[in-house]
Amino acid sequence: MKKITVVGSISMDLVTSTKKIPEAGETIVGQSFSMVPGGKGANQAVAISRLSTEKTSVTMLGAVGDDTFGKELILNLKNNQIFCDNVGTIPQITGIAQITIYDNDNRIIIIPGANSAITTETWTQEWETIKESELVVLQNEIPHEVNLQIAKFCKANTIKVLYNPAPARKTDTEMLDFVDYITPNEHEYKDLFPDLSLEDGLKKYPNKLIVTLGIKGVALHDGTQFQVIPAIPAKAIDTTGAGDTFNGAFAVAISKKLEIKEAIKFAVIASHLSVQKFGAQGGMPTLKEIKGHENYEKKWNLE
Ligand SMILES: Nc1ncnc2c1ncn2[C@@H]1O[C@H](COP(=O)(O)OP(=O)(O)OP(=O)(O)O)[C@@H](O)[C@H]1O
Ligand SMILES: [K+]
């Protein structure tokens, strides 16, 4: 069976909320603390799995550290029906994101740990997995060299690549020739193409560059014209994971052979549903939930 493979980060989000930010040398008592599985790679794999009809049709490649977070995160992937036998455990710490919620805003410190130690040097089965994939999904929380190698391999083997250049890196443009879809948000777009207006950049990469604009929707050039596919307004509770949900849903729709604009519309419904629930993975909808939405189109036939 053809599958989607996600190669990317697997991290634990350590979320603290506080009414005060301590000064240097000060200790304060905060409001609450929780640990939630995260990492853009793992998040997108979960988004894909929730929308898949077959079990373990998504494979995760990446690495965790030899610690308790690593074990928990692998368990979380398995609980989400993600095939993760080839996720490596390496003598490192597992990646973490320390998130402080203060005054309705996030302050985030990321320690990439094992995510930044991923190397393809030891890969054998991993290349086979990629070779058997229909679509490979990449983000920017693992080393650029790894992404580039994978993208080149996929190009040589005519495997489609969806590349979500988040967070932005200076080297991102090196990926452009080797990927089929690239999905920056507005800010990442500006980092990618500082000298090009949105319309000009999209025109240069028709049906390939897809820019998510938050509540304003999603922009692309379809070869004929510039278009914005509107977002669906929602009573947003927590927009964390909107982008990951968008990418995961888009990947599923593309792998089911939906035309690009239809795939975007499907992903817009998914991300609209995701912002109405807490957490990145916590808010990711199932296929059933999307099918229950009034904007779902029967012709999509995503079974
Ligand atoms: N408040 C919202 N209401 C409805 N839909 C939203 C909202 N925010 C985001 N979306 C949907 O999610 C898509 C992706 O959002 P956005 O462009 O903010 O990505 P992002 O910056 O990668 O997200 P994040 O980093 O928060 O996960 C948007 O194109 C839109 O369709
Ligand atoms: K959410």
From TrEMBL:
<dbReference type="InterPro" id="IPR002139">
    <property type="entry name" value="Ribo/fructo_kinase"/>
</dbReference>
<dbReference type="InterPro" id="IPR029056">
    <property type="entry name" value="Ribokinase-like"/>
</dbReference>
<keyword id="KW-0963">Cytoplasm</keyword>
<dbReference type="InterPro" id="IPR002173">
    <property type="entry name" value="Carboh/pur_kinase_PfkB_CS"/>
</dbReference>
<feature type="binding site">
    <location>
        <begin position="11"/>
        <end position="13"/>
    </location>
    <ligand>
        <name>substrate</name>
    </ligand>
</feature>
<dbReference type="GO" id="GO:0004747">
    <property type="term" value="F:ribokinase activity"/>
</dbReference>
<feature type="binding site">
    <location>
        <position position="238"/>
    </location>
    <ligand>
        <name>K(+)</name>
    </ligand>
</feature>
<dbReference type="Pfam" id="PF00294">
    <property type="entry name" value="PfkB"/>
</dbReference>
<feature type="binding site">
    <location>
        <position position="240"/>
    </location>
    <ligand>
        <name>K(+)</name>
    </ligand>
</feature>
<feature type="binding site">
    <location>
        <position position="141"/>
    </location>
    <ligand>
        <name>substrate</name>
    </ligand>
</feature>
<keyword id="KW-0119">Carbohydrate metabolism</keyword>
<comment type="subunit">
    <text>Homodimer.</text>
</comment>
<feature type="binding site">
    <location>
        <position position="244"/>
    </location>
    <ligand>
        <name>substrate</name>
    </ligand>
</feature>
<comment type="similarity">
    <text>Belongs to the carbohydrate kinase PfkB family. Ribokinase subfamily.</text>
</comment>
<comment type="pathway">
    <text>Carbohydrate metabolism; D-ribose degradation; D-ribose 5-phosphate from beta-D-ribopyranose: step 2/2.</text>
</comment>
<keyword id="KW-0547">Nucleotide-binding</keyword>
<dbReference type="InterPro" id="IPR011877">
    <property type="entry name" value="Ribokinase"/>
</dbReference>
<feature type="binding site">
    <location>
        <position position="185"/>
    </location>
    <ligand>
        <name>ATP</name>
    </ligand>
</feature>
<feature type="binding site">
    <location>
        <begin position="39"/>
        <end position="43"/>
    </location>
    <ligand>
        <name>substrate</name>
    </ligand>
</feature>
<comment type="similarity">
    <text>Belongs to the carbohydrate kinase pfkB family.</text>
</comment>
<keyword id="KW-0067">ATP-binding</keyword>
<keyword id="KW-0479">Metal-binding</keyword>
<feature type="binding site">
    <location>
        <begin position="212"/>
        <end position="217"/>
    </location>
    <ligand>
        <name>ATP</name>
    </ligand>
</feature>
<feature type="binding site">
    <location>
        <begin position="243"/>
        <end position="244"/>
    </location>
    <ligand>
        <name>ATP</name>
    </ligand>
</feature>
<dbReference type="InterPro" id="IPR011611">
    <property type="entry name" value="PfkB_dom"/>
</dbReference>
<feature type="active site" description="Proton acceptor">
    <location>
        <position position="244"/>
    </location>
</feature>
<feature type="domain" description="Carbohydrate kinase PfkB">
    <location>
        <begin position="1"/>
        <end position="286"/>
    </location>
</feature>
<protein>
    <recommendedName>
        <fullName>Ribokinase</fullName>
        <ecNumber>2.7.1.15</ecNumber>
    </recommendedName>
</protein>
<feature type="binding site">
    <location>
        <position position="277"/>
    </location>
    <ligand>
        <name>K(+)</name>
    </ligand>
</feature>
<feature type="binding site">
    <location>
        <position position="279"/>
    </location>
    <ligand>
        <name>K(+)</name>
    </ligand>
</feature>
<keyword id="KW-0630">Potassium</keyword>
<comment type="function">
    <text>Catalyzes the phosphorylation of ribose at O-5 in a reaction requiring ATP and magnesium. The resulting D-ribose-5-phosphate can then be used either for sythesis of nucleotides, histidine, and tryptophan, or as a component of the pentose phosphate pathway.</text>
</comment>
<keyword id="KW-0460">Magnesium</keyword>
<feature type="binding site">
    <location>
        <position position="274"/>
    </location>
    <ligand>
        <name>K(+)</name>
    </ligand>
</feature>
<keyword id="KW-0418">Kinase</keyword>
<keyword id="KW-0808">Transferase</keyword>
